[in-house]
Design brief:
Elements (H helix, E strand, L loop, with lengths): L13 E7 L7 E7 L11 E6 L8 E9 L2 E5 L8 E5 L4 E4 L7 E6 L2 E6 L2 E4 L8 E3 L7 E4 L5 E5 L2 E6 L6 E5 L11 E5 L1
Antiparallel strand pairs: 1-2, 3-7, 3-16, 4-5, 4-8, 4-16, 5-6, 8-9, 9-10, 10-11, 12-13, 13-14, 14-15
Length: 191
């Protein structure tokens, strides 16, 4: 005999008594309980946690974020003006009801990394402010972390940053001579 209960998404413990009966045998009663969900925890939500060092960087799903206080601008997977989704940072994490469209799969390539979104593998162009995608071939990116915890993602000498100018608001690789004028990004790993 097997009994299955759905997940307890309430803030109260659930309990029940199950009675097993068989002809010619004494009834057996079993008490079962199911813990309450912790207050504030949503079992259907997706949580991304900021990483700030190479030791925390492992293959997996990430979001690329420009942080402005508790406001987060999450890369939407496109090279486009207003190429972000709004989110909120709370205690070093971003929680959402569904995965972000620009979720990035990061995979090690020796000492370097590939970054893949729905449109393909991301990469920059030397001497150019551009975000390129290769649909089939993994592209080399170098990832390091600054002392403030921001991620420095470099491809072909261009650095992935966020342009916060009102007529741009986009993520792109910016050439080495101008990337410092753009905003640093952070990496948040999907839990």
């Amino acid at each position: 005999f097997k009994a299955t209960a759905s997940a307890n998404n309430t803030t109260e413990e659930r309990s029940a008594t199950i009675t097993f009966s068989a002809e010619g045998c004494a009834d057996v009663k079993v008490n079962v309980s199911q813990d309450a969900q912790a207050t504030g925890e949503d079992t259907n939500s997706i949580k991304y946690t900021k990483i700030t060092s190479l030791g925390e960087l492992t293959d997996g799903e990430y979001i690329i974020v420009y942080e402005n206080g508790n406001n987060a601008y999450v890369y939407n997977g496109k090279d486009a003006v207003n190429g972000y989704t709004d989110a909120t940072v709370s205690n070093g994490s971003i929680t959402t009801d569904e995965a972000f469209a620009g979720e990035v799969t990061i995979a090690a390539m020796g000492e370097d990394y590939s970054l893949k979104v729905a449109d393909g593998y991301m990469y920059g162009t030397s001497g150019s402010n551009k975000l390129n995608f290769n649909s089939t071939t993994a592209q080399v990116n170098t990832i390091s972390f600054e002392s403030d915890g921001s991620a420095k993602i470099t491809s072909n000498t261009s650095v992935l940053r966020f342009n916060a100018a009102k007529d741009q608001m986009r993520f792109r690789y910016y050439q080495s001579s101008s990337y410092s004028k753009q905003k640093a990004v952070a990496l948040y790993k999907k839990n």
